[in-house]
User: What shape does this take?
Amino acid sequence: MKVGIEQKPLETAEADALIVLVFEGIREERFGAGALFDAKEVEGKSLELTLIHRPVGVAAQRVLLAGAGKPEKFNTAELRRVLAATARHLKPKGIRRIAVALEGHFARADWVTAAVEGVILGDFEPDRYKTENDKKSIESFRVIVAPGSPAGLDDAAEQGRIVAEAQNFTRSLVNEPGNRLTPAKVADAARRMAAEFGLGCEVLEREKMDQLGMGALLGVAQGSAEPPALVVVGYRPVQTRGGGVHLGLVGKGVTFDTGGISIKPADGMEKMKYDMAGGASMLGAMRALAQLKPSIPVTAFIPCVENMPGGRAQRPGDIVTAMSGKTIEVINTDAEGRLILADALTYARRQGCTHLVDAATLTGAIVVALGHLNVGLFASDAALKDRVLAAANAEGERMWPMPLDDDYKEVYLKSAFADLPNVGGRWGGAITAAMFLKEFAENTPWVHLDIAGTAWIDEAKPYTAKGPSGVPVRTLIRLAMDWKN
Ligand code: BES
Ligand code: ZN
Ligand code: ZN
Assistant: This one.
């Protein structure tokens, strides 16, 4: 999609549809809209959309009145959502060149970025494998601001494009089915992306993992005919500032999770292709960071495996030795995410990461605790936690802090035969999973994001397609961009 800014009176903007925000309690007189307000057909309620043909007094062919809700509740997250809804409303009608008027104080960088993101995110459709050829998408999107608006809005639009395209890149990867996106294919996708945007990329194969002693990761991988891969993608700033900080982004990359020998029920198992959403989020974030160039080095580590049952699969009761040297009793082979992350966290620390953030579709228990609206956030370090929460807040990606008290380990994470069991029993499942990971993050400041409830949208909404959400890509990007020392 082409994206740009135009400084001109909105009356002169040419477009198939010009989007104009309307707020609750604020009457719009222009475009012949007064009568709609009088009839209460338009009230400005959030996500209310009204298309006016041949609007009075403007060059655009249509005006789309976009309900923005109560002015005091309106923010960039709401603008992003409203604009995503407008894109989804217009594109099935074959409308391809659209624009939004950002008037008054909305002609500012943060609003422009959110508007661009909204349209690009709303345009996303997980329809790659639909063969009918009348796929419709938005061709161009322009932001119309009054002459004399602040400078720098072009950069803001460009930033929105980079971030939203990165998020959609993640969503496309997550939507790939297990037969088409194996661990080796994730590695291919990472190499291609890294080459395109000038990032470093290295892929560790089974032999290398063996040498490094990654017994936890290899134990999960051994049940599949598909070889595992540990994908490492690195960004280095031209001038290293940032006081020795090196941010490590670790993402769960289970390309399909059957549960292994502790096999999952058939009902809904097809959704488990999204079990690499954490890893795909890290690749999406790196794709954007390569273009936005933060001032700190950032490296992504994505352990990729397929969790399968079979004659070579690991068994409940198996004891594996992780790269850190700790032994783990595999009580349940379906708790595989923490096993592969354990070795990836150790590897990231050994590679010199000073701060770690992981994202993983780790537990069903986080969905029980928080539903589908908040990411579960676990932190071993208050300062890093605050940075992540601030970034999430600014990006409208909701996250909720969860506990990590030491006694969760003492009470729930005991194995009779090894240092740790890989499951903690019935209660507090998301917390004991996080507690397990903390054993491998050790004393490195670390935040864990359990995205099992938030990485996939079960039902289409006016502002988003069914399928991968791309959470928490925007938070990760902002976390790195805002890191200034
Ligand atoms: N990938 C799943 C987590 C998951 C479950 C995500 C449901 C989305 C929806 C993970 O590997 C898993 O299977 N976790 C188990 C852990 C249990 C065996 C302790 C779970 O949550 O049931
Ligand atoms: Zn599992
Ligand atoms: Zn899993």
Remarks:
- The first strand starts at residue 2 and ends at 7.
- The mean pLDDT is 97.
